[in-house]
């Protein structure tokens, strides 16, 4: 096994939820899997990686932030619906609180988002 190639990290078993009415493109699935593989063994530091992302073109920074917000929103929805466990409870709860705050401050408009747990 070539440990330097990262092939041993490619588990290809992301637990994709069924998103009602949503179609996830193959490119989006591939990116999500590659990012999961990166975080799961190739990333040296979340802070340093975050800083490095700010070197991208300003427009790309805006687009990357939209992906971050989408991820945060989905974690918040999952938290509200009880779709988390001890491994991601902190991230899910924090996402829920942050997204709720952004909505309350009217920094994000999302009338479909509920501020209460459903379970």
Explain this structure.
This protein is mainly alpha-helical and 119 residues long. Helices cover 54% and strands 0% of the residues. It has helices spanning 26-42, 46-53, 58-80, 89-104. The longest helix has 23 residues, at 58-80. The protein is globular, with a radius of gyration of 16 Å. The relative contact order is 0.08.
Q: Pick out the low-confidence regions.
A: 1-13
Binned strand content:
under 5%
Mean pLDDT: 87
The geometry reads as: globular
| Helix segment tally | 4
The gyration radius over C-alpha positions equals: 16 Å
- Work out the helicity level: 40-55%
Distance between the termini: 44 Å
How many extended strands? 0
How many strands, what sense, and barrel or not for the largest sheet? none
The ordered string of helix (H) and strand (E) elements is HHHH
SS class: mainly alpha
Key features of this structure:
119 residues; mainly alpha; disordered N terminus
Short synopsis of the structure:
By secondary structure, the chain is mostly helical. The chain has helices at residues 26-42, 46-53, 58-80, 89-104.
Question: What topology emerges from the helices and strands here?
Answer:
Blueprint: H1 26-42, H2 46-53, H3 58-80, H4 89-104
Helix pairs in contact: 3-4
């Amino acid at each position: 096994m070539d440990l330097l190639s990262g092939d041993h990290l490619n588990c290809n078993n992301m637990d994709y939820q069924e998103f009602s009415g949503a179609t996830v493109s193959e490119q989006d699935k591939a990116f999500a899997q590659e990012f999961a593989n990166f975080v799961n063994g190739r990333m040296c530091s979340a802070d340093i990686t975050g800083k490095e992302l700010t070197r991208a073109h300003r427009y790309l920074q805006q687009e990357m932030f939209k992906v971050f917000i989408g991820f945060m929103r989905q974690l918040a929805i999952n938290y509200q619906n009880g779709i988390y466990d001890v491994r991601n409870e902190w991230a899910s709860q924090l996402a829920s609180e942050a997204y709720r705050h952004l909505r309350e401050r009217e920094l994000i408009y999302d009338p479909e988002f509920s501020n209460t747990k459903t379970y």
